[in-house]
Amino acid sequence: MIFKWLKFGLVxxxxxxxxxxxARSDDxxxxxxxxxxxxxxxxxxxxxxxxxxxxxxxxxxxxxxxGLLAPGDRLPPQRKLAAQLGVDxxxxxxxxxxxxxxxxxxxxxxxxxxxxxxxxxxKAILRAPRVEPVDLSMNLPPEPDDPVLIERMxxxxxxxxxxxxxxxxxxxxxxxxxxxxxxxxxxxxxxxxPSQERLFVTPGAHPALLGILTILAKPGDTxxxxxxxxxxxxxxxxxxxxxxxGLPMDGDGIDPDALAQACERLKPKxxxxxxxxxxxxxxxxxxxxxxxxxxxxxxxxxxIVEDDAYGFIPTRKIPAFAAxxxxxxxxxxxxAKCIGAGLRCAYVVAPDSRSAWPFQAALRAxxxxxxxxxxxxxxxxxxxxxxxxxxxFIRTEAAARQMLATEILPPEGLYAxxxxxxxxxxxxxxxxxxxxxxxxxxxxxxxxxxxxxxxxTDGNPxxxxxxxxxxxxxxxxxxxxxxxxxxxxxxxxxxxxxVL
Length: 500
Description:
With 500 residues, this protein is an alpha/beta fold. Helix content is 46%, strand content 12%. It folds into 3 domains: 36-127, Winged helix-like DNA-binding domain superfamily/Winged helix DNA-binding domain (Arc Repressor Mutant, subunit A, Orthogonal Bundle), CATH 1.10.10; 170-384, Aspartate Aminotransferase, domain 2; 388-499, Aspartate Aminotransferase, domain 1.
């Protein structure tokens, strides 16, 4: 009964608004000269994760788009709405100003704020689909904004749609012949030429890593990794009941001597590495160190799991572990960082045919197959050169954002590769990672920060944060965020919080 009552109340309110609009329209019941309908408008701010003033403007646009608000409606007075929402008056005032900038409303002195008949610009805003919040804590590549490139990407999507029905069927595990050919062409840029029976198209790097570790280790076994490592592999290890042990690192990566000692003492089942533009430090292991690590791993019979998520980003190519030691290396080449995170596709190279059999069984049990639609799109973009265009854009934009960071942020404690799309930032005293992240989030700056705890395996992370510069955030927004960060870093936390 209560649901019927609520529904009736909403319909009645909407119908009453419709009656008032018809009453003042030229083609309805007539015009109410000099009178304006006062909209009973109270936005639900919990529907948006934006700063509250921006949420007010966006929710206003939503309700104009849906017809709940119509041209001529008078919005509630700012102080009244502030009291209803439990926010400061200035927050509502800023929200109304933002809506006015977008051409959605106009303010008349002594009369109030009124919904406008949408202008061409406002119509474009209202026609745009509501964008869901993006998790900026994820390390996303910069998002293409070149209309020519976007159109080309869309053309590729339209092209694979011509054979849509076949892509909606079950397919054999590991990818079609066309998908494997494209994968081989893509991997050849990393000096990899695997045989077809060792090559698999999988539904993303994360499922691939889960499948590999499932067949290499059983609950209670030890897996070695960098002392600062990808959070995803920490989650996988926890899920599988594996003991993840981090190895000490220097400027060239993990210490080969420490690796040898760990192999002697712990009898690990695998060594997991993210060796190029390592997440989170952006460190790349040089070729000589890679050879030394591979030599130790081969001596102790420890397989290497190479997560090459960023391997295609650098222009100066360093051989992959799978090229230096193909007989002991599982190579995982995801497309999330070099093309787009939503393209859930990764190319896996097994060390030999015998290893491929249990891997195929493990991944088939959990995922059945990679999405044929996704694999076909990746294949199309690789074949027609679109993937190369996206990769060039990511490199160019990442380099531009890193230059901004170098110009704006103090150099002390700043670690980054010129082509990475994240920073590893050590915080000056007395800042703590939690205080700094809380301060930046309070400003509403659209940039992702993650505390070092997410990456650390030894329980002593220090005061570091990973700063993500990519995703849908524009270069101008990145500059603004970096300016805020630079200002905060030279202030004590308590002063920065009052100034900003």
